[in-house]
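Subject: for your reference before the review

Hello V.,

The reviewers asked for a structural picture of the protein, and I figured it would be easier to keep everything in one thread rather than splitting it across files. Below is the amino acid sequence we used in the manuscript, unchanged from the supplementary table.
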Amino acid sequence: MPRELTVPAQAAGQRLDVFLAAQAGSRAAAQRLIEGGLVTVDGALVAKRRVLSGGELVSVRESEAAPPAVPVPDAQFAVAWEDEHLIVVEKPAGVVVHPGRGNRAGTLAQALAGSVSGGQDPERAGIVHRLDRDTSGLLVLARSEAVHAALKELLAARRLVREYLALVVGRPPARRGTIEAPLGRDRRVRTRVSTDTDEPRDAITHFEVERALPDDTLLRVRLDTGRTHQIRAHMLAIGYPVAGDREYGEPGRHGLRRQFLHAARLAFPHPVTGVPVDVRSPLPAELAAALERAA
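And here is what came back from the structure prediction:
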């Protein structure tokens, strides 16, 4: 039998997932129940963001017994810079930044739980920006709500500098350039982001040549915006895909097992002290080896 709860008047204005958090054990657990179709409000399936008005009947069905979970090791990372307000970490390729569909455990956010804070989503505590699973390099995370908000403001004002090293196939015709092309979910291949989209969002990428190679070019890339797969999609759009990229480029090029994309530098004024923070990360060994093969 499902559990049935009548929403009290004092809960009016709460989101459904917030209301159910106490019964489910956590807000994240409540969201899983809602997304799994196990929760109805007055007999109808609704979104986790549904705002309650009081008096509704909320029904929660028990989920089917699941097999015992296989332990997932904590995500690996290295601390590049930290103080009591924030932490800059180096994420290796293969690590997912936060839980999502298909990646419920073993994420960076979970490995840092308790040492970072800020933001509305408890599963993404402290996170200000992201890196793709197979992109390595630097991320900054907040340790308080105030610092999280301040870092978000720096990001929006383009005062949080994010520089990447990307090996692309071919050689752009100019030593530096800017790509201004809105990006969104591709019309045909829904796992991709592209300029051929019905959901365009502004995206700006700057690049300059770091090193010219016989058949490839090492670029230093700076982002003004932070769209999903932005560098990978923009470089493909102008005809110079990222080497090794399984989705947007040439997988296996120069022996690469993932895209040659590394977040090599973060620079920003400290949100509390105002002192400049400038952190750099060298290429990991597998990318350095691929670069030598390309040369």
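For the response letter, the relevant points are probably these. The chain has a mean pLDDT of 92. The longest helix spans residues 145-156.

Happy to draft the paragraph if you're swamped.

O.
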